[in-house]
Amino acid sequence: MLDRIEEIRKEAAAAIEAAPGTAELEELRVRYLGRKAELTTILRGIAELPDQERGRVGSGANQARTQLEELIAARDEALDAGELESRLAGDRIDVTLPGAPARPVGHLHLITRTTRQIEDVMIGLGYRVMEGPEVEHDYYNFTALNHPPGHPARMLQDTFYVQSDPEVLLRTHTSPVQVRGMESQPPPIFMIAPGKVYRRDSDATHSPMFHQVEGLAIGEGITLADLQGTLDEMLRAIFGAGREARMRPHFFPFTEPSVEFDVSCFQCEGTGKLADGERCNLCKGIGWIEVGGAGMVDPNVLGFVEFNGYDPEQVQGFAFGMGVERIAMLRHGVPDLRRFFDNDVRVLEQFH
Amino acid sequence: MRVPYSWLREYCDPGVEPGKLAERLAMTGTEVERVGAVGPPSAEGFVVGRVLSAEPHPNADRLRVCTVDTGDGERTIVCGAPNVAAGQTVPVALPGATLPGGHKIGRAKLRGVESAGMICAAAELELGESPDGILVLEDDGLVPGTPLAEVLPVGEAVLELEVTPNRVDCFGVYGVAREVHAISAAPLAPEPWADDAPAEGEGEASDYASVTVEVPSLCPRFTARVFTDVTIAPSPAWLQARLAAAGQRSINNVVDVTNYVMLLTAQPLHAFDLDKVPDGALTIRAASAGEKMRTLDDVERTFDAETVLVCDSNGPSGIAGIMGGQRSEVSGDTTRVLLEVANWNGTNILRSSRMLSLRSEASARFEKQLHPELCMRAQRIASRLMVELCGAKLVPGTIDVAAEIPEPRKLTLRGERVEGLLGMAIEQADQVAYLERLGFGVEIAGDDLEVTVPPDRHYDASREVDLIEEVGRVHGLDEHLPSTLPAVAGRVGGLTREQRLRRRAEDTMRDLGFDEVVGWSFTDPGEPTRLRIPADDPRTAGIVLSNPLSEDQSVMRTTLLGSLLDVAQSNLARGADRIAIFESARVYLPPPPTGRNRPNIGRNRPAGALDGDFSGKRAAPVAEPHRIGSIAVGPLAAKSWRGGDEPADFFALKGTLEALAGQLGAELSFEAAEEPFLHPGRAARVSAAGESAGWIGELHPLVGRAWDVEAAVGFEVDLAALVAVSTAGEEAFEDVTSFPAINQDIAVVFPAEIAAEQVRGAVFAGGGELLSGAEVFDLYEGEQVGEGRKSLALRLEFRAPDRTLTDEEVAERRAAIEAELEKIGGTLRG
């Protein structure tokens, strides 16, 4: 009996070794280890054997069976790997075809992007962002900003008025939000106000609608020198390290002293000349580029909000304002203000 | 304000090139638009010549062959001017000289005669106009060969100043000279109005003329002088040249004197032909509404009751402070002149000039409010020039009708305030020097200064802070101001939650493939009609501008849809094959009739800036809700070899809007609704927590046609409505990890008229708390479910946070779902 088991084992082992594919191997498994296989039959008949043979035959048959199972498993693995290889080899793709387009990601408008950049810089300096109406009371746009009725400074900005109410207009600057801010919050106040503004003017450098960012800082002992430092920091953050702010005295009704501020030219490093000696076309050889207007908030403006703690003898501070489009034009070389409102998607998609 | 450099230097010579002065002016508060040049680029080659003879040209009727002494000898010059004659003293451009515009004079043969130079007309040197031909110089013993620049400003630099409206003193050359003196410390010539003319006329001014002022508050001062024996003639070349460089046309000697004195002192003047003023009687009064007059520019003007007129017994003869009339204008045969120098109420002049759309050099000065003191300054200089240049005799006496002239203003400048406000220390001695150079009177009082304001600065420098500005700017901000940051503690910057969520909304739309656009806030009145919005819809009642730039931009938009369509249209016209855009901006709605405009009146949500509820004591005049609007035309993704070019439809945009809401932690619901501009079967109202938040839908084809846009789909929602229900940042933890969920798929057959949302509603009603999700994954209509019925497949997820659910519990819920579905005519299938 033991001899027969060894015979089966040898025969089966040889067959397994020679099996050409997983299908043939499965046939061998059924033939040698299946329910009707001789080895199976022997194992099933062990109980009927005499006592002295039972142990030896049993363990011999079991060993043979285990060994064959292992051989089949090993052969199966080998065959499987080979077959997968050849199957994968047939599954080739043309890797040079274009990729499936991802669903496109859109773009924020350059005005939004620039506004956010300014907001983020000022937030970092401790300012909060406030908003106000675009259709505004004359009071906030002019009167409370020290433009009394009939004052010539009102004519500096050509104003759109609302038909139904002569006291209502489209704000000509974001400055009314200063007053709203101070009305709603006692000093100290550090705020900026971005938003749309409107002036009755239209050409390459004027649009009847454009965007400004206003800044306001009021507290005890805030000086014009603090405005200088704030503008230095802000302009460096926007236009790059090494930039400086320059303030030129000017006139605005709601600030005293008033200034216009420039940034040192980032194309020629403030020299007015390019590397090849040519006059810098960005700053027109001046070395400075005008950015916006600023100044120390006029005591008369504080007078309008004195009820909320803005006593001009106790607190003081500065305000500044600038055009968002102008910053974006400078930073990205946009030549004409009107391009911002064309909304040509081929342009919109240039700015990521 | 154009300031010829030679004129400026007559009063204050800073000793630097005009360009350098311009830089210094710009850094101290007087912007120089540019340093222009009038006349030839260089004075070289221009000399005084004397015409010795002028003979007809042998080959040309209109040319003359002149022999001209130019100091270096005699030369032949061919001249085409009709007025050239022997004995004249003339400007000559020698060969080598360059004319304005760059033409270089050479030797040339003109019709066979060689010409060695050119006799110049005033216009050729940009020294004025030259109707007669060449410029003939007054002979004051001029020696031929004298450089012309010693006689006339040849190649004059002109500072074109942008004077700020507070500095009306700098609308006069002497005021600019004082400013230059202040910033450069170069000496300042004495005030040119110090001396008056001798009064050698007959009688008294009041014998010739009288002035009645009916409106003293609008005419604080009116002075008049009378001149006899006036000879009207062209002005001398120097005066013409100065006016030309300053941008004024020369008219005649009398008118030129008035303009010259205005340019020098900033105080406008007006000359009347006294013989055309009946009895010499002038009355200053308010116009009656509708009254008319023809002004010097030959236009008939109609006045309102607030316009002030200068009248004689024949009616109005001038608009106060703005422009004179034709009737009493000075003309060639004028012999007696009444010279008006008045002071007007600036606010009134500004108002009238705007009402009439008529601005003049005079009104530009008066509207900024001149001081009454200036009147007599101008009378004195003008009188001298009238006598000198017009041969006039000044009649003794000045008619002076003056209301009260304001007392000189006295201000205290506290020493500590200068550094306290500027953050830069300025020595007291420097402060005094700056103020005195600017014309202020200064007395030292310990650390403080007692300052007297000169009349020129009376209205501009009215407070301590104005003086601080003066000393600060003259001291020099660019050189001396430190750079510091506010030393105020405890400030924290940041965005509000609303602002953060708005950024997130915009970012989400971007990430979903939409480009942001910025549309015009204004639109044309026809837009609502093109959007098919009926006349009784409040969206047709946009805020109307009273002075729009054009009809196309005359109404504030009430929806973002119009400008989104405008942008789509222009991009499609430019060849775009698909559009996916959004806008994040406000619309403008008329205030509700409830008085105080809080836009969320009647709503449950708290108002904020996104709702148009802004800080400040006064509410916004109109409602300005912030909206997110979007439209798509064509596929959302580009077409490729793998397909993917299905045009965006209702569900594509609904998916976008749901993703947007999802990013904000807001839940939206949709129900079929109609909007005039949407496809009636493919439109929905969007709601958040039961409140309407906006619309979504496919565009009505007729609306698309109005914009040449086919098959667009879009939405527009109030951002505040989404933010109001947003849980973003406030989310509570939910345990979905500890215990497993049980998933089951069901198919529900129901009548076709029942909305999917109702089916889901029934499923949730039956599922109770244990049902944590029910996603629709299939829709079937067809034979298998029968006519008029639909089948919806849903994947249900059951879960409990505290235990593993048993099959029995789920079966119970499933039975309850079945019961709920039966209520709406639905059955579970399979």
Keyphrases for this structure?
heterodimer, A: 352 residues, 3-stranded antiparallel sheet, B: alpha+beta, 5-stranded antiparallel sheet, elongated
Q: Could you describe the 3D structure shown?
A:
The complex is a heterodimer of chains A (352) and B (830). Chain A is of the alpha+beta class and 352 residues long. Chain A is 40% helix and 20% strand. Chain A is built from twelve helices and ten strands. In chain A, strands 1-5-6-10-9-8-7 form a seven-stranded mixed beta sheet, sandwiched between helices. In chain A, strands 2-4-3 form a three-stranded antiparallel beta sheet. Chain B has 830 residues and is an alpha+beta fold. In chain B, the strands form ten sheets. Chain B has a seven-stranded mixed beta sheet, sandwiched between helices. The chains are: A alpha+beta (352), B alpha+beta (830). Chains A and B meet through helix 5, strand 1, strand 2, strand 3 and strand 4 of A and helix 7, helix 10, helix 12, helix 14 and strand 26 of B.
Look at the helices and sheets of chain A and give the structural class.
alpha+beta
- Intertermini distance of chain B: 91 Å
CA-based gyration radius of chain A: 43 Å
Q: How are strands sequenced across the largest beta sheet of chain A?
A: 1-5-6-10-9-8-7
Low-confidence stretches of chain A: none
Largest interface: A-B, 104 and 104 residues
Distance between the termini of chain A: 84 Å
Radius of gyration of chain B: 41 Å
Average residue-wise pLDDT of chain A: 90
In spatial order, strands of the major sheet of chain B run 26-29-30-34-33-32-31
Shape of chain A: elongated
* Fraction in beta strands of chain B: 25-35%
Q: Could you spell the SSE succession of chain A in H and E letters?
A: HHHHHEEHEEHEEHEEEHEHHH
> Which consecutive residue ranges of chain B, at least 5 long each, have pLDDT under 50?
594-602
**Fraction of residues of chain B in helices?**
25-40%
Q: Biggest sheet of chain B, open or closed, and with what strands and sense?
A: 7 strands, mixed
- Largest sheet: number of strands, sense, barrel closure of chain A: 7 strands, mixed
